[in-house]
Structure formats: C-alpha cells, structure tokens
Amino acid sequence: MNKFVSSTALTMSVSYILTNVQNRSNFRKEYVIPLIALLMTKYIVGDFDMGYTWTLNDVVFVSYVLLLSYVVVRFSK
Fold first, then answer.
1. Least C-beta-crowded within 10 Å: which of 10, 40, 43, 46?
2. Mean pLDDT for the stretch of residues 43-49
C-alpha cells in the first residue's frame, strides 16, 4: 500500500509541476506529461510488484499512472 501512496503523490506532483513549464515542443501537454510522469514514477518508486517480468499488476500500474497524470493535466489548466 505504501508504493501506491508514493506513486500517487509523485505522479500528481510531477504532473502539476510540468504543467507550469512552458511547452516548446510540437506535442500536446496532455500526451507528453503523462509519459514523463510514468517514467519518473517507475524509476523513482518502482511498480506495485517485484521482479522483471510483466504481470497484470504492471498493466494496472501503467494505466493508473497515465490516467492520473492525464486527469491532473486536464484539470490544472
């Protein structure tokens, strides 16, 4: 449960901070920020299970982080 709370807090923080950075690329913020938040959360906190093989928990983790970050970006405008 601790990784769930840590992942949620980090994802929301990174997403909100990055929405305040000027976007100079040709990509929309709604697409780029969730990917950056996913990679940073995976690198810093890790996912919900242990091991190097993909499981259903990994699919849930990726879906959860991408959706949460997308919602934060959409509602922080």
1. 43
2. 87
- Domain spans in the chain, listed from the N-terminal domain onward: 2-75
Residue with tokens 């959860």: 64
| Residue 55 per-residue DSSP state | -
Q: For the whole prediction, is pTM greater than 0.85?
A: yes
Model confidence band, residue 55 (pLDDT cutoffs 50, 70, 90): confident
Q: Are 53 and 14 in contact (CB under 8 A)?
A: no
Question: What is the residue whose two structure tokens read 């100079």?
Answer: 24
Residues in the chain: 77
- Closest C-alpha among 10, 15, 7 to residue 46: 7
